[in-house]
Amino acid sequence: MSLLGLPVPAERGRALTRVGAIVDEPRFHGHLTGRENLQILAAARGGDADRQIGPALDRTRLTQRAGDKVSAYSMGMRQRLGLAACLLADPQLLILDEPMNGLDPVGMHEMRDLLRDLTGEGRTVLLSSHLLDEVERSCDQVAIVDHGKVIRQGPISELTGGAGAAVEVQCSDPPAAARALGQAAAGSRIALTEDGLGLTVTLAAAPAREQIAKINRRLVDAGISVYSLRQTHARLEDWFLSVTSRLGDDQ
Amino acid sequence: MTAGSVAAGRRGSWLPTWPLIGAKLLDLRKRRILMAVTAAFTVGLPVLFYGVRLIYNLADPAQYGPAGTPGAFATAGTLMDEFGLIVAVMLGATAGTPDLADGMFRHLVITGRSRLALYLARIPAGLSILLPLAAAGFTVACLVTGFLHSPLPAGAVTPSPGAMTGAGLWLELDLIVGFTVGAGLGSLMGQRTVPVILLIVLEIIITPALADHALPGFVNGERLVVGVAMDQLKPAALAGGITVGPGGGPRQLHLPPMPTWAVAAVIGAWIAGWTAIGAWKMINRDA
Questions:
Q1: Is B190 left (phi over 0), alpha (psi -120 to 50) or beta?
Q2: Pick the CATH number of A164-233 from 3.40.50.2300, 3.40.50.1100, 3.30.70.100, 1.10.10.10
Q3: Span A2-139 CATH architecture
């Protein structure tokens, strides 16, 4: 096993030099201020980590509250302090476990921007989360771990692209439209929407513009008025559920 | 070799660095209640003890003797020993556990710093708080004994500066033992309350019982109890003039006095042993 090109655990100390991590909820000495907690961690890091305290606080927008005791921090502030602690290492690799926990919408937006900035600087951010919407927004690539094993990994667009895509159809006679499309579109799945005013055509592969036009033509030929055709992409969550055994699995 | 690899190399060293010790010192000295209790038991206690004696003496010199008698010095020393030991154990256990309780342990481990260095940094950090405070309290006792002793009761002799220094060093050694045992036990148990209770029981109940009563089949195993060994070294100035052990006194053991090397070995083994146990637990603790 290697980390940043170094074998671990043999070269663990050197490998961890450029790794920052938050595992579980970030917790600190509550009786110390944010800056003092970072001073302790910088002392453990050694090198010039103490010189990174100010920039790390600035970057996580904690400078104004750096002199307050951590016991008075909100969960979101502790998350940001955790990230500041990671930045002391000037990390090549950041491992963040549920970094959006406890953040308000503004905080989540800021955290997303910050993670994007960090990856833009050439750092790798490994984000572990159960919030798949958040993963979809923040990450380029995903790995799905199921029962302790990586079962799929790759760029999100490639992985969800393989799960198929759907076209939502609004028309004058959805049941008739379903029959008309069902006779012709082999391999696709057709379902009426819950309100009964439309239908969803799920295709095995991502729909090309021509496929959408073909659906439209077929409906018009069948004498059905088409009000709208809207292509929807498969979401990460849908893809996740399709490839894991977690649905209905209590373990 | 790059700057990064030099820093990484230092992080792997088991020797705690000055910044690491300073960081632990920062953590400890910012615990205000703990610091207040430590100051109260090390400095406040002798100040209160001699202050009351001084007030009584000034109010009614005929009935109440001078504040600084040899007997008062021995009593003050005993108080500072008993309460100082409790504080030392508290401080040691506190130095050994809050990283875990406060969730900082994981952050510290992730830095790649040697866990042994992280553990060892606690000892000089804690002692740098405890020992100067105890020395300040003891200085109060020495000053009162040296300057406010007149008139002494018949036959009483003020302890010499050398005897006072010896008594002070003995007190400091006792606190070092209490601190290192507290830190080791705290690290082992992952909490501070139970270690403090256990060591108070050891000091107040078990040690006197073992020193005073022979246990059948125990083969003088009492000698291995650190409190018994420390009593052997206790200077006469703190024992009201009773002399038994190599240090002068005070406890009349049911077993023959221990030779100095044996006393030193027992005390050294307790300090080194509990430090090793505490460090071992820290090294092997799941982060």
A1: left
A2: 3.30.70.100
A3: 3-Layer(aba) Sandwich (3.40)
Over residues B214-245, the pLDDT tens digits come to 676 665 777 788 888 888 888 888 875 444 44
Are residues B89 and B179 in contact, defined by beta-carbon separation less than 8 angstroms? Answer: yes
3-state SS class at B43: helix
Contact flag A13-B12 (C-beta cutoff 8 Å): yes
ipTM over 0.85: no
The CA distance from B185 to B3, in Å, is: 38
Q: Do B104 and A20 touch (CB under 8 A)?
A: no
The pTM of this model reads: 0.77
State the angle between helix axes of B70-96 and B18-29 in degrees (0 to 180), rounded to the nearest 10. 110
Asked if A47's CB is within 8 angstroms of B3's CB, the reply is yes
Q: Does A163 touch chain B (CB under 8 A)?
A: no
For A228, the token pair is 């709208």
R_g of chain A computed on alpha carbons? 25
Q: Number of Cβ pairs closer than 8 Å across A and B? A: 98
The alpha-helical segments, DSSP class H, found in chain A are: 12-16, 34-45, 53-59, 75-87, 105-120, 132-138, 156-161, 174-184, 209-221, 236-243
- pLDDT (tens digit, 9 = 90+) per residue, A86-124? 999 888 999 988 888 878 888 888 888 888 888 998 899
Q: Where are the domains of chain B?
A: 14-284
